Amino acid sequence: MNFPAAWRYRGVLGMMAFIMPMLLNAQAYHLTWYNSQNGLPTDQVRHVVQDDSDQLWIATDQGLVHTDGQNFQLFQHELASQYCRYFWQDEEQIVFSHDAGLSSIQPGPNGPLIEGLQGASIVPKKDALYYPSRLYRDRQGQLWVSQADGSVGLLKEGQFHRISLEEGEQRPQFFFGETETGDLYVVSSNGKLYLRDKASDKIVEAANLGRAIYSFCTHNDQLYLGLSDGVQQLELAGDSWRKTNFYPTENARVNALAIDSSHSLFLGLQDQGLFYLDLERQATGSAKLLRVYSNNDPHRVDELPFRQINEIVLGKNGAILVCAEEGLGILRKRFFESVRGLPNGNTMSLAFSAAAEGYVNFGDVFRLHPTHVGYRAETLDLSAAGTVNSVFPTANRSWWVGNSNGDLYRLNAQNQVQERYDFTERGNGIFYLLEDRQQRLWFCQAPEDQPIIGIGCILPDGQKKEYGKAEGLDNRILVIRESAQGRIYAGGIGQSTYLYRYLPEEDVFVNLSLPFDFYVSPNFEVHDLTIDQDGVVWLATTDGLLRYDGDRVRNLDLVGYQADLEVRAVTHLDDGSIWIATDTEGILYYQDGELLSLGEESGLPSKVMAYRALSRGPDGRLWAGTAEGLVYSYHPAPQPATTAAPWINSILRNEKEVGSNKLQLQTKDQLDLSLSSNGHYGFRTFYSYQLNGADWSKPNSSPQISLMDLSAGDYQLAVRAKKEGGYQWSVPLQLSFEVAKPWWQRSSTQLTVVLAAIVFFFAWYRWKRGKYRARIDQLRKALAGGEKPAIMQRTPLAQLHSLLRGITPESSLNDIEDRCRKALISFPEIVDFQIIRGLTELPESPKGSLLSKAGSFRGEAVTYQIRGLEGVAFTEEQRLLFDLLTTYLDQIPPV
């Protein structure tokens, strides 16, 4: 449907008129919502507690739920009753109530251990609990229990005591709390306040409001009571209580109440949801009640889904846990917060005064004022100054404004024009301003027809001055900054004219530009710069972030990003961290070599950052201008939080679950780990691991790690986690395991083999020695008994025997000698055999050992002789063999 333009315009104005008050009077948090659609057995959540590892235990009407934000575990069969009511946590355990009594939760090696502590009766009894609900452990270690029969149960030194307070038809529930002085109060929903008398240790009535009380909390020595139409504050005056402030809720019942350490009240209103009580104006009695919204997207504000809130629990790290009939809500501030009432436009300039006031320009100019709940924006009417491009406050509460035409104005604290400087002939819009400590105003101006060399300045006496080539500036200047020591640096355009320093003694600039040993584009520019505590100049350029230390300029390796990523703004904080605003990747945090990315999940309305719009405010907060609005860090000392260390859900070895103690693998085994990390804030968690100190693996959002084909050795596995949303890597989880060598490579196996070889060698040696001795014995017997050659068939001399069998009575001496020679030289270390007629003694041959023996061959005297290797003595076996052979030859009959 098409409407006339005027109607559409009026509609936009009407919508803005409706929305803007809501935005200005609201608290916005990031919401994580658990219900029956994503992990809980029911939408009805009674209470919640956050344990030491930041995991949640949730009390529902269908059992006890444990979750780390990713995995949900329901406990029903372990409980005597599934109707869980309330928790209380101390240093040793978590105690919770249910319809059948009290139970405890304790950590265990195989998961949490749930045990019964105190049973309850289904009828009121003096010595038993009766449908316990709210719990409170006082400073003396005594556990107080609200019961359904108008009585209070007290567990003291292991003994149960029943304290009857209000029996009757209107059976109240009771609230408990202690003041800073140690006074314990028991508050009845019927309107009575009871105090534990320190002298008698009895519960006595202290006051009666005469009306129903629906919630209660203490802070310091003050009591806060949630009523049907507001919150009543009580204060101790002498020995009695007096009413001080009353905060109306427009007749909405306060069902839940909590107060944090900064004295900020959170209220759960009947049928309306969660609210925040702004105590900024408490002194005047005009504190405002603000609705709490969900701020998942900085471009919009969503109402929370909770209307019937049972409890409000203040969790760790500023989290607000909302227990409601619509589920469990986890609310937390993100790293960056938006300033309500500002447009979602491109940030053109940003500056802060010494009085903690900020000025931001989107075309229209806004003054930023700190409040108790953040910042509020005041629109300034600067129509007399034209279209504003840049602003900068001075030290004396006046401020400067540069417009798009080239005019420069000085305004007083009432925004009235005091002076006007016309630079229209010099160029177009004045886009950047800086007033230094000497009250010189430096300004950068966009050119019109030709480039502007240098930078303009208005001196403290109001005189104009141009700093150009004669003053040392050779090119256009885009930014000028002053260090903590009062040194002034200017950044500009060109590969050899990008950095200058002002010399006040000579009133000139000196070129500090060093040549690059890396590639930069022909259109190289310095958009912004900052000077850290060590005097290092960090340059935000078209070609990434550069670090200039006077001796060298280098390109900072922004790991995970393209090398020529454009950086539009840069600043540093006192802790040494460097904050980098990019053109497309949001803000990068850099410190000690670690790089962290902050984007939309951290609260940025856009990853496209504005030029020179990154600044630290007077209170330490980091402010960042984007293409779609302005944000500031939630904490005054911005530091990315550290992700909680991950833990191991299961370890699988070849798809079979094993424990982590003395974990041993084989080289062909596969190791699978299932991890978890607290994920209560709706952002992804990334995991990375390293083995034995090697490089960390590429971050992966999967909580599964698989390792296989590992070589043998000892391993130290480190696993870390990092959440999106401005979180640093966690402290690594360490796991030790061993990959065993194959059995044939193990030292034990090798030792066994060596020992077996030694045993085998000795057995073989003994066997060979036995065989050898047997042969020797056989040869001796053959020699002693004059055995015929047949005996030789049963000896190892079978080869010799086979040759000798060819000897006949007709065989000649030469034939027999030749046969014997061939047989003997086959034995080790025997080289010759001779039968010599008529000789009985021969000298020892110098060429080898010689063994001779006189014999009688066919009745003729001969000498038998064998020659062995030189220097090698004959063995006993060889000597016996020679004796046996010669004896045999002596027995050959004559022809």
Map the helices and strands.
Blueprint lengths: L4 H20 L1 E9 L10 E6 L5 E5 L2 E5 L4 E4 L8 E6 L4 E5 L2 E6 L6 E7 L15 E3 L5 E4 L4 E6 L2 E6 L9 E5 L5 E5 L3 E5 L6 E6 L6 E5 L2 E5 L3 E8 L2 E9 L5 E6 L5 E5 L3 E6 L9 E7 L7 E2 L5 E6 L5 E5 L2 E6 L3 E3 L10 E4 L5 E4 L3 E7 L2 E7 L7 E6 L5 E5 L3 E5 L5 E6 L7 E6 L5 E5 L9 E4 L5 E4 L9 E6 L5 E5 L6 E5 L4 E4 L14 E6 L5 E5 L2 E5 L4 E3 L11 E6 L5 E5 L4 E5 L2 E5 L10 E8 L5 E5 L2 E5 L7 E2 L4 E7 L2 E3 L4 E4 L3 E7 L8 E7 L12 E5 L4 E11 L3 E2 L4 E8 L6 H39 L12 H7 L8 H12 L5 E8 L12 E8 L2 E9 L7 H15 L5
Parallel strand pairs: 1-25, 58-66, 61-67
Antiparallel strand pairs: 1-29, 2-3, 3-4, 4-5, 6-7, 7-8, 8-9, 10-11, 11-12, 12-13, 14-15, 15-16, 16-17, 18-19, 19-20, 20-21, 22-23, 23-24, 24-25, 25-26, 27-28, 28-29, 30-57, 31-32, 32-33, 33-34, 35-36, 36-37, 37-38, 39-40, 40-41, 41-42, 43-44, 44-45, 45-46, 47-48, 48-49, 49-50, 51-52, 52-53, ...
Helix pairs in contact: 2-5, 3-4
